[in-house]
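Example 3.2
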Amino acid sequence: MKVKTILVSQPEPKVENSPYFDLQEKQRVKIDFRPFIHVEGVSAKEIRLEKVDLNNYTAIILTSRNAVDHFFRVADEMRFKVPDSLKYFCQSEAVAYYLQKYVVYRKRKIYVGKRTFTELSPLIKKYKDEKFLLPTTDKVKPSVPEILNKLGVNWKQSTFYKTVISDLSDLANVSYDVLVFFSPSGIESLFHNFPDFKQNDTRIAVFGNTTVKAVENKGLRVDIAAPTPETPSMTMALDKYIQTANKK
């Protein structure tokens, strides 16, 4: 079956040169964007109840741009002046680059991993005398605390923001040829909003092994998967699939 419409379960890209826009033009398909989940901040009051005093930490571990935003939001709410001496351990270059929104990069001690938390861990281990704070979502990957515990460092995890299911009721009577998911939370949102969802001819595209498992656990069929050596990005995987499907 041909692909004419695609729903991506993320916010619309803000950059003009997004590969999704190129894909839309190249394959002459309609691509809509709609976040199936969104992030809500936890109040400073709730964080204080977790017995978190920002004065007690000499280093912050940042795993995402959301973690960056909500750390500085909470610091502001607590009227905590972030010291110049604070060390920042960023999971990836993208997170470190985003940090510039809040700090003068060249004047701070910033340590950057390649991409995964495992790749960041040797840098954390080098500074094991620091007191680390890990501001996270309520759905942190289990591997993260496991790695920190193995490193034997002094650290504390605190929920600074939560992943919340979005209301998709306005999509009840709308259908798409392809649904695109990037996390198990997206699948959870689909069934929360539409408990009787039946896949039928709808193609499901997923990014990452944990998302594949979440789809299969719901008895659904994965039609398009990324990343693979041949298609390392979701747009490349979609492009390849559409080329074949729309030839028929």
